[in-house]
Amino acid sequence: MTTYQGRPLPHPEEEVFDQGLGFDMGTLMGRRKLLRAFGVGALTLGVAACTSTTSAAPQSTSAATVDSSEIPDETAGPYPGDGSNGPDVLEQSGIVRSDIRSSFGDAKGTAEGVPMTLELTIQDLANGGAAFAGVAVYVWHCDRAGLYSMYSEGVTEENYLRGVQIADDSGKVTFTSIFPACYTGRWPHVHFEVYPDQAGITDSTKAIATSQVAIPKEHCDTVYQEKGYEASVTNLAQLTLETDNVFGDDAGAEQLGTVTGDVSGGYTVALTVGVDTTTTPAGGGAPPGGGAPPGGGTPPSGPPPA
After folding, report:
1. Which of the residue ranges 24-28, 105-109, 217-221 would you say has the lowest mean pLDDT?
2. pTM of the predicted model as reported, rounded to 2 decimal places
3. Cα–Cα distance list, 222 to 164, 226, 267 (Å)
4. Are residues 124 and 225 in the same domain?
5. Using an 8 Å Cβ cutoff, are 165 and 98 in contact?
6. Which domain holds residue 151?
């Protein structure tokens, strides 16, 4: 009987390499055993282990990665209503509320416009990006005519589109509002301040973060076709995120909200806000010169445009 490596050849009349697939597989397995005897298999396993570890590493890193970096510090603008530049709505009873479309207290006005829900999720970067539950978030923005309550002519007695919410266990605050206008010199935006807790909101110097939410252009273009937003069409056409005097540094990369919805059902604008209490807040306060938005934009004034 003709054999090869102790195994009988299925076709002894043929060469070894012509014995068929079954015989070839047996030969291959025999060679692998030989390689393992010389430690080559251990090397292969080591490489495989390294490959496995490398593949697993991104998953581990991803799980530990904070969803956002620290929110950029920004000016509170000339119309904060937090006592740092005139009126102080944060001293008034009723400021803690989720629906900010109507004025409260002695004021009775209601801001009209396309419905907008604002959702901010606050992360505690000093605690590994954990939900920053219990912080107080104050938001404010202009109405569809570009006017700010408490400041702009015609609405100085109103305090609508201003409110405070306390972050829940997931670090989220939710406000019911209206889509803001685009006024001369500024990209459409929403202001906000983050305070350590509700007790701290009566002192603007206690804010641990002051910033703004930018609204994507495609949604602004749609909303500004609606009644009451006519002036915003012209104003937005003169701006880009890159040329805006607040978002221009990085085109609002860390501040651009995620928007869902439509005109008929309303929009939801969401943003994750990273707050680092180990750094010194550099935002807040009115811009130099008092009234105008930073960069020379014209402050909203006068009656709503026709």
Report:
1. 24-28
2. 0.74
3. 28, 8, 11
4. yes
5. yes
6. 89-275
